[in-house]
Amino acid sequence: MFLGEYEHSLDDKGRLTIPAKYRNRLANGLVVTKGIDRCLWLFPSEEFERLASKVTSLRITDPDAREFQRELFSGAADLQADNQGRIRLEPWLRTYAGIDSQAMIVGLYNYVEIWAPSAWRERQERSYSDPQARAEQFARLGI
Question: 23-26: which pairs have CB atoms within 8 A and are 24 or more residues apart?
């Protein structure tokens, strides 16, 4: 499982070091794609295959399904971490997420989000600034 937050630097080749705690789960490969919130999603290959199976089973005649398929698959890179646990984030993925020299790596149990640190802090501040709204949001989810 992926838990916690980590801030890591990217090197001059656009490589990002994956936290050591996450590496075993990613040993069989991983996929990085555009996330919905101007972040990147990182999935272990097997988890991405489960998602891909659901997405490709959607009706091709549904415009929302086609749009989601376009975003998910055209924005994806199939990767393998190197011996030092680094992955190279493609320039177009870094541009999409606003990631320059630093990135926040955020564990979300079965996948990971990668954020520009400033965007991550802004998102947290918006969420934390209204505890009552957060409680209501979680209650709507049945939590």
Answer: 23/81, 23/85, 25/1, 26/81
Per-residue pLDDT tens for 96-105? 999 999 999 9
CB atoms within 10 A of CB 103: 25
Nearest by Cα to 27 from 93, 103, 83, 111: 83
- Which CATH number does 5-116 carry? 3.40.1550.20
Tokens of 124: 């947290």
Greatest CA span in the chain, whole angstroms?
Answer: 45
H-helix or E-strand containing 121? helix 117-128
Residue 77: pLDDT band (50, 70, 90) is: very high
Residues 69 and 37: their CA atoms lie apart, in Å, by 16
